TrEMBL record:
One of its GO terms (cellular component) is cytoplasm. Keywords: Leucine-rich repeat, Repeat. It holds the Pfam family LRR_4. This is Uncharacterized protein. Gene3D superfamilies: Ribonuclease Inhibitor. InterPro entries: Leu-rich_rpt (IPR001611), Leu-rich_rpt_4 (IPR025875), LRR_dom_sf (IPR032675). The lineage of its organism: Eukaryota, Metazoa, Chordata, Craniata, Vertebrata.
């Protein structure tokens, strides 16, 4: 089918005026739609307006269905950037083969329904209105490239289980706390990370403090498109050592709390002081016995 060779581009058209899109479902491989759609449904299932209940072909449904819609069997690249999309609706069930999805420059506030895209590898959600990413790993299992630049994120919780992620762009968000990097510090495949334009970038030694949170993989991560220097790696080693010491101290403190759960802060401090006095006394006695 010669159609499979032709990328379709739609720009500045009212989606209702576009006729014949469903005919392209079997063969179209690449589609770009800009300044034309208020929803993904308008483009992916224009006939939805005619049916009260529809379901994607091959998807089991619990409720009565008035239409079974064929999937876009060949579509692997969909670019719907620069529209006025407010949500990622369930019409994505119709594009199960998509590997590249660009939804940048829209009005999205949530990451939803993407669990239907088993083949999705590259996702661009930059310049939307995202504020939280909670549970994103349940929807983006095999993602390698994720662009979240230009949103309103102040937390990275939700990214900690994206184990396939290689490239992550978080530039121009509201990330202010270095603690947030812990959420991505254990990702085993991450190689490129961009954090430029976040409040945390003005923290002194920001680069080494971020890289130190990648532990043994610090030398493998390229931060803000800048190769890490040997000097930075030396500093990272020092920061890691300090962090390990702090964690060991915290563990000891928490085990002490478990031993004395009933002691208040004041009595606990008193008990510690008493113990150190006792130890000092024992040392003095020992010294005296050696004279």
């Amino acid at each position: 089918s010669s159609l499979s060779l032709l990328p379709l581009q739609i720009n500045q058209c009212e989606s209702r005026q576009i006729k014949g899109l469903p005919l392209l479902r079997p063969a179209l491989v690449t589609m770009s739609v800009h300044h034309s759609a208020a929803s993904m449904k308008d483009i992916l299932v224009p006939e939805a307006s005619e049916f009260a209940q529809w379901e994607a072909e091959g998807v089991a449904s619990d409720c009565p269905v008035t239409a079974v819609i064929p999937t876009w069997k060949s579509l692997t690249t969909l670019d719907m950037s620069r529209n006025s999309l407010q949500c990622i609706d369930d019409s994505v069930k119709l594009i199960p083969k998509v590997e590249f999805l660009d939804l940048s420059y829209n009005e999205l506030t949530m990451v939803e329904n993407l669990q239907h895209l088993y083949n999705l590898i590259h996702l661009d959600l930059s310049y939307n209105k995202l504020t939280v990413l909670e549970g994103v790993h349940t929807k983006l299992g095999n993602i390698k490239t994720l662009n979240l630049a230009g949103n309103q994120l102040d937390s990275l919780s939700g990214l900690n289980k994206l184990y396939s992620l290689v490239n992550l762009d978080l530039s121009s968000n509201k990330l202010a706390q270095l603690e947030e990097i812990k959420n991505i510090g254990t990702l085993p495949c991450l190689e490129k990370l961009s954090l430029t334009g976040n409040p945390m970038c003005i923290i002194p030694d920001y680069r080494t403090k971020v890289l130190a949170q990648f532990w043994d993989r610090a030398s493998e991560v390229c931060l803000d498109s800048t190769i890490t220097t040997e000097k930075e790696l030396d500093t990272v080693e020092v920061l890691k050592a300090i962090q390990k010491a702090k964690e060991a101290k915290d563990r000891m403190a928490s085990s002490e709390k478990k031993v004395h759960p009933l002691l208040t802060g004041r009595t606990r401090a008193a008990a510690r002081a008493e113990m150190s006095v006792r130890i000092a006394g024992q040392k003095l006695q020992l010294k005296g016995s050696f004279k």
